[in-house]
Design brief:
3 helices, elongated, 108 residues, four-stranded antiparallel sheet, 4 strands, Alpha-Beta Plaits
Protein backbone atom coordinates (compact mmCIF):
# COMPACT_ATOMS: atom_id res chain seq x y z
CA UNK A 1 0.00 0.00 0.00
CA UNK A 2 1.43 3.40 -0.93
CA UNK A 3 2.74 5.82 1.67
CA UNK A 4 1.99 9.54 1.68
CA UNK A 5 3.59 12.48 3.42
CA UNK A 6 1.02 15.03 4.55
CA UNK A 7 1.97 18.51 5.73
CA UNK A 8 -0.70 20.46 7.58
CA UNK A 9 -0.39 24.13 8.51
CA UNK A 10 -2.70 25.67 11.08
CA UNK A 11 -3.78 29.28 11.66
CA UNK A 12 -2.89 31.11 14.84
CA UNK A 13 -5.55 31.43 17.48
CA UNK A 14 -7.18 29.73 20.43
CA UNK A 15 -9.25 27.26 18.38
CA UNK A 16 -6.17 25.08 17.80
CA UNK A 17 -5.80 24.63 21.56
CA UNK A 18 -9.51 23.86 21.89
CA UNK A 19 -9.45 21.04 19.31
CA UNK A 20 -5.92 19.59 19.54
CA UNK A 21 -6.91 16.79 21.96
CA UNK A 22 -9.71 15.64 19.66
CA UNK A 23 -7.27 15.84 16.72
CA UNK A 24 -4.72 13.63 18.49
CA UNK A 25 -7.40 11.12 19.48
CA UNK A 26 -8.45 10.96 15.83
CA UNK A 27 -4.83 10.34 14.82
CA UNK A 28 -4.51 7.59 17.43
CA UNK A 29 -7.51 5.91 15.81
CA UNK A 30 -5.75 6.04 12.44
CA UNK A 31 -2.67 4.50 14.06
CA UNK A 32 -4.80 1.66 15.44
CA UNK A 33 -6.18 1.08 11.91
CA UNK A 34 -2.65 0.93 10.47
CA UNK A 35 -3.29 4.05 8.36
CA UNK A 36 -1.01 6.49 10.20
CA UNK A 37 2.63 5.46 10.64
CA UNK A 38 3.90 8.60 12.36
CA UNK A 39 2.91 12.17 13.09
CA UNK A 40 4.27 15.17 14.89
CA UNK A 41 4.79 18.91 14.89
CA UNK A 42 7.34 20.71 12.79
CA UNK A 43 9.70 22.90 14.76
CA UNK A 44 10.56 26.56 14.13
CA UNK A 45 7.99 27.14 11.39
CA UNK A 46 6.17 30.45 10.81
CA UNK A 47 2.80 28.73 11.37
CA UNK A 48 1.90 25.76 13.50
CA UNK A 49 2.51 22.80 11.24
CA UNK A 50 2.92 19.05 11.34
CA UNK A 51 3.79 16.05 9.19
CA UNK A 52 1.78 12.87 8.97
CA UNK A 53 3.09 9.71 7.31
CA UNK A 54 0.01 7.84 6.09
CA UNK A 55 -0.76 4.58 4.30
CA UNK A 56 -3.58 4.61 1.75
CA UNK A 57 -4.63 3.02 -1.50
CA UNK A 58 -4.62 6.40 -3.25
CA UNK A 59 -4.57 10.16 -2.74
CA UNK A 60 -8.38 10.30 -2.49
CA UNK A 61 -8.23 8.02 0.54
CA UNK A 62 -5.67 10.33 2.17
CA UNK A 63 -7.90 13.31 1.43
CA UNK A 64 -10.83 11.48 3.05
CA UNK A 65 -8.76 10.83 6.20
CA UNK A 66 -7.76 14.51 6.31
CA UNK A 67 -11.41 15.50 5.83
CA UNK A 68 -12.31 13.34 8.83
CA UNK A 69 -9.84 15.15 11.07
CA UNK A 70 -11.43 17.50 13.63
CA UNK A 71 -9.00 20.20 12.47
CA UNK A 72 -10.57 19.96 9.02
CA UNK A 73 -14.11 20.11 10.42
CA UNK A 74 -13.20 23.23 12.42
CA UNK A 75 -11.46 24.88 9.44
CA UNK A 76 -8.09 24.74 11.22
CA UNK A 77 -6.04 23.65 8.22
CA UNK A 78 -4.84 26.69 6.27
CA UNK A 79 -2.18 24.85 4.27
CA UNK A 80 -2.16 21.25 3.09
CA UNK A 81 0.31 19.28 1.01
CA UNK A 82 -0.03 15.60 0.10
CA UNK A 83 2.77 13.74 -1.68
CA UNK A 84 3.19 10.04 -2.41
CA UNK A 85 6.49 8.83 -0.98
CA UNK A 86 8.49 5.63 -1.41
CA UNK A 87 10.77 5.09 1.62
CA UNK A 88 13.31 2.88 -0.12
CA UNK A 89 15.97 3.41 2.55
CA UNK A 90 15.91 3.53 6.32
CA UNK A 91 13.55 2.38 9.03
CA UNK A 92 10.47 2.30 6.77
CA UNK A 93 12.15 0.51 3.85
CA UNK A 94 10.22 -2.68 4.59
CA UNK A 95 7.07 -0.74 3.70
CA UNK A 96 8.45 0.64 0.43
CA UNK A 97 7.67 -0.54 -3.10
CA UNK A 98 11.10 -2.22 -3.15
CA UNK A 99 11.29 -1.01 -6.75
CA UNK A 100 14.26 1.36 -6.97
CA UNK A 101 15.24 3.34 -10.04
CA UNK A 102 17.40 1.27 -12.40
CA UNK A 103 20.49 3.21 -11.29
CA UNK A 104 20.05 1.87 -7.74
CA UNK A 105 18.92 -1.69 -8.51
CA UNK A 106 22.31 -3.11 -7.50
CA UNK A 107 21.66 -2.00 -3.91
CA UNK A 108 18.63 -4.27 -3.57
Amino acid sequence: MPIYIVRMEHPDGDLWNKHVLEHVLYLKGLIAQGRLLASGPLKATPLRAGFLIMRAEDRQEVEAMVDGDPFSREDLICGLGIEEWDPLFGMLADQSSKQPPAELASLF
